[in-house]
Specification:
The structure holds two protein chains of two kinds.
Chain A: E1 5-11, H1 25-39, H2 44-52, E2 56-61, H3 65-68, E3 90-93, H4 99-112, E4 118-125, H5 132-139, H6 145-149, H7 155-170, H8 176-194, H9 209-213, E5 222-224, E6 227-228, E7 238-245, H10 247-253, E8 260-268, H11 273-279, H12 288-301, E9 310-312, H13 318-328, H14 337-341, H15 358-361, H16 369-382, E10 395-402, E11 407-414
Parallel strand pairs in A: 2-3, 2-4, 9-10
Antiparallel strand pairs in A: 1-7, 4-7, 5-6, 8-11, 10-11
Chain B: E1 5-9, H1 14-25, E2 30-35, H2 38-51, E3 61-65, H3 69-73, E4 78-81, H4 87-100, E5 106-109, H5 116-120, E6 131-136, E7 145-149, H6 156-169, E8 173-177, H7 185-202, H8 209-215, H9 226-233, H10 235-248, H11 261-268, E9 281-285, E10 291-296, E11 303-305, H12 312-322, H13 326-335, H14 339-362, H15 367-377, H16 382-390, H17 395-402, H18 404-409, H19 412-416
Parallel strand pairs in B: 1-2, 1-4, 2-3, 4-5, 5-6, 7-8
Antiparallel strand pairs in B: 6-7, 9-10, 10-11
Helix pairs in contact in B: 1-2, 7-8, 7-9, 7-10, 7-14, 12-13, 14-15, 14-16, 14-17
Classes of the chains: A alpha/beta, B alpha/beta.
């Protein structure tokens, strides 16, 4: 089977509010695709040439543009970016907040199967077109909407608040204060990391342990059960692009030293939150399918957690990052607080998690997040992450979830041995 | 630099309050919040908290009044004076601070343009080395620019330490500037804004204020049109800045700093802008919740409804920008020869030239002009503006063609030799102003 390499990519500045700029999805995609191709060393002429030979395809990750910008048929929309995309195979992939990973998965599969040599993956979402409560209701479609979202104010913060409750219920020996403290520290860590990322949404924002650990105030109101605004990722506009390619294309162009996708995992847990929780009763893990996706990725890569140097995880809420720490294998299940307290996951720790700032710090344009994670791992492994570069990043792992950890996508990226 | 305790003097003003918030949050410092009356200071505390959206800093804020100045200053590692922009007021405060401050403390003024050297002389000789200009922009939480001014007395190692503290602890974009009237950001920004005001007077028969704003709006690389910006800042502040520059500098753009007669009149009548209810613009609120935007008509002296001007070149530019076709937008600007398009382009070209000129005179590098305009004004910075136009035109040729008068007064070749790629992305600053949904 063909190996899948990452040629490069780009993301938009997640601080931008495209609605305020008076720009729509055409503008967003034109900028992101042009920047992504340029960073990968491709021109629109290269795209045309590859297309004439039917060697290139595009994969669009987006959750719910039908609601946010009244637009479907997103694969075809790339033809609005540049005539180079006329005739080029392109389709949209959707798995809620894991849409970006679903697009990567499809793209990587086509290269692995030796059907295309170059795959352009574009993840995007414009979320600031509507006020946050309406947007929150749109996002409710990532759950079982009729049962868990409809008519409920901000369904997702509530569901991830319940995940926090379930964590405490599953691990009765876990002290509540210790747990909430770990969640506050996870928030602070993501905000602090975002300060080093010049494209992070919150790079100018203030967050401190005092602020994050004092929930229920005017500036840190509770948004879902015991979780405050500080535990919550952002409403973000943005796009991320990565270009994947085959070994033969790499050789043809004389590129070298490009990171490779070493393994992946993809598992789907029960959609309904209650069923998901009932399903974990025979597992030591709160999210057994998330854990399984990590195990699958390790197995496919022939690697273990010890081999990983950096992680990008899905901190849509602090409670999801917390659960992901044991799923990665960084701690025993139920002991995730240890990774926080020991600074294991800190920027300068042994196993840094979210040096980019993650979804809380860097931002979460939902359909873009999976692509953005892979782009950040690519940057880390290539040593081009600038101020947020971590030490000795040879291999990295990402977890991108959709819904309440319903869709679980894991990828391992690393330098070629 | 270890700053644990700070005194902010003049905390009830907008800048004083916002800066106290910056020290208490990012700086994690205990902040003595000093104002004329204890009650006013106490009422300001919630505003400080909201300026950084963090209740957690409330415990770091200690209200104090002027009678406690010496006591607070005597306990502080850093003293920040943010009082009225009046040399007599600032002199008196500097003298009191100089007598009370600890020998190892650092003192700074937030003055937006008075002589830092003159204020340094109010300090005892041995403390002058510890005094700096620390000029931030409003609101500092979203505009991170900080202009740092040293004087002939300044301790250079201490300046470097302070710069590092402002950049890495307070997360400011620190730009070192010379002790020159209004420093760099306001020098460039108010050259543009005041000349726009002069053009409003010159083109008063075409509509005046709203006419000029309509052709220099967000589609030209800024969030807010220039005269709306003046209205937001206040004509009193605008006047103080341009008068200071006009009286104390002399460059090729000297006459563009003269405040037009009608604006002097408005300022004298207390019609300062948004903060006083009316100025260049007036928003009328009706009981039923409706609002009506009106503008001062220079010809009649009355407020009238803002005119929704439609200029074909601007309309096309906005359309292109909304779809991300930047080059087409700039091509339209360069190729259109209507009066409005020519005024618009001439302003953008003059902005580039004056920025290059001012950066040499007031800054220490050409990038400093980019930093001040991007992070202090949220305008497309000059090097990025050059890059945007250079994608569709020969900019030096365009300048020679459109601005022959200025070309006779400056050494254009020398100025343009400093041009380099910008660190800022011009696309972010050009906004269509269109509703997209």
């Amino acid at each position: 089977m063909n190996r899948v390499y990452i040629l490069g990519g780009a993301q938009t500045d997640f601080e931008r509010n495209w609605t305020k700029e008076g720009k729509g999805m055409a503008a967003l995609l034109k900028e992101a695709v042009a920047d992504g191709l340029e960073a990968a060393g491709l021109t629109f002429d290269d795209v045309s040439c590859l297309n004439r030979e039917n060697r290139i395809a595009c994969f669009i990750g987006n959750f719910i543009a039908e609601k946010y910008v009244d637009q479907g048929h997103l694969g075809a929309f790339l033809t609005e970016v540049d005539p180079a995309f006329y005739g080029l195979p392109s389709a949209r992939y959707e798995a809620a907040c894991a849409s970006g990973s679903a697009a990567i998965d499809a793209a990587a599969t086509k290269i692995r199967a030796e059907e295309y040599d170059v795959c352009v993956v574009v993840g995007w979402e414009l979320m600031k077109t509507v006020e946050s409560r309406i947007g929150g209701s749109y996002l409710g479609r990532a759950a079982y909407y009729a049962k868990e979202g409809k008519g409920i104010d901000l369904p997702f913060p509530r569901l991830f608040g319940r995940l926090a409750d379930e964590t405490l219920k599953k691990y009765p020996e876990l002290d509540e204060k210790r747990y909430m403290d770990a969640l506050a520290r996870i928030s602070v860590l993501n905000y602090a990391n975002a300060k080093r990322n010049p494209l992070a949404q919150t790079r100018k924002w203030f967050m401190s342990y005092d602020q994050a650990s004092t929930r229920g105030t005017q500036t840190n109101p509770l948004v879902g059960g015991r979780l405050g605004v500080s535990d919550c990722s952002q409403v973000t506009d943005g796009a991320a692009v990565i270009v994947l390619c085959s070994q033969s294309y790499l050789k043809e162009k004389g590129f070298w030293g490009k990171p490779v996708i070493k393994g992946y995992g993809h598992r789907t847990a029960p959609l309904l939150f209650e069923k998901k929780m009932a399903d974990n009763k025979n597992s030591p893990y709160l999210l057994p399918w998330t854990r399984q996706a990590c195990l699958d990725a390790y197995k496919r890569a022939g690697m273990a957690v010890e081999d990983m140097d950096v992680f990008e995880t899905h901190d849509c809420f602090t409670s999801s990052e917390y659960a992901s720490l044991s799923a990665f294998g960084l701690t025993e299940p139920g002991k995730e607080y240890q990774a926080v307290e020991s600074h294991l996951i800190a920027f300068d720790g042994e196993k840094p998690v979210n040096p980019s700032g993650g979804l809380i710090g860097c931002g979460h344009p939902v359909g873009a997040s999976g692509v953005r994670m892979m782009l950040d791992l690519y940057r880390q492994i290539n040593g081009i992450a600038g101020e947020y570069q971590v030490r000795k990043a040879r291999n990295g792992m990402m977890l991108n979830i959709g819904g309440t950890a319903t869709t679980n996508y894991v990828f391992i990226i690393g330098a070629e041995e | 630099m270890n700053i644990r305790t700070v005194t902010v003097i003049g905390v009830t003003g907008t800048m004083g309050a916002n800066i106290a918030g910056i020290f208490a949050s990012f700086g994690c410092a205990r902040v003595y919040c000093l104002g004329r009356s204890m009650k006013k200071v106490q009422n300001t505390i919630p505003r400080i908290v909201m300026s950084v959206k963090a209740d957690a800093i409330a415990k770091n804020l200690i209200p104090a009044d002027f009678s406690m100045l010496e006591e607070c200053v005597g306990k502080s590692d850093l003293i920040f004076e943010s009082s009225k922009e009046d040399i007599r007021v600032k002199t008196q405060i500097a003298e009191r601070v100089g007598k009370a401050m600890l020998p190892y403390a650092v003192s700074g003024t937030g003055s937006s343009g008075l002589s830092i050297t003159e204020l340094a002389r109010c300090y005892p000789q041995k403390l002058r080395s510890r005094f700096f200009g620390i000029h931030m922009f409003n609101p500092p939480y979203t505009l991170p620019l900080c202009e740092l001014t040293a004087t002939e007395y300044s301790n250079s190692a201490l300046k470097d330490e302070l710069k590092e503290y402002l950049a890495s602890v307070l997360h400011r974009t620190v730009v070192e500037v010379k002790d020159s009237p209004a420093f760099l950001g306001n020098r460039i920004g108010f050259q543009f804004i005041n000349e726009a005001l002069q053009y409003a007077e010159r083109f008063k028969d075409n509509g005046g204020i709203d006419y000029i704003d309509a052709l220099l709006g967000p589609f030209t690389g800024r969030s807010m049109p220039p005269l709306a910006t003046s209205d937001f800042v206040g004509l009193d502040v605008h006047k103080a800045i341009v008068d200071n520059i006009y009286e104390n500098t002399c460059d090729y753009a000297h006459r563009t700093f003269l405040l037009p007669g009608f604006a002097k009149g408005l300022a004298a009548d207390g019609k300062l802008g948004r903060k006083s209810g009316c100025g260049l613009y007036q928003r009328i609120h009706y009981e039923n919740g409706f609002t009506r935007d009106t503008v001062y008509d220079i010809n009649t002296g009355f407020y009238r409804d803002v005119i929704p001007y439609v200029f074909p070149f601007a309309d096309k530019m906005k359309q292109y920008l909304s779809e991300g076709d930047y080059q087409k937008a700039f091509e339209e600007l360069v190729k259109n020869h209507s009066l409005e398009a020519e005024i618009c382009l001439s302003f953008l070209l003059k902005y580039i030239i004056y920025s290059l000129y001012a950066a040499k005179e007031v800054g220490f590098s050409i990038e400093s002009a980019d930093d001040v305009m991007a992070t202090g004004f949220n305008w497309c910075p000059p090097l990025a503006m050059y890059q945007a136009l250079a994608a569709v035109a020969d900019v030096p040729g365009l300048i020679r063609e459109r601005l022959p008068q200025i070309c006779r007064e400056v050494d254009l070749t020398h100025l343009l030799a400093a041009i380099k790629p910008s660190r800022y992305d011009y696309r972010i600053y050009f906004k269509s102003g269109r509703k997209i949904r």
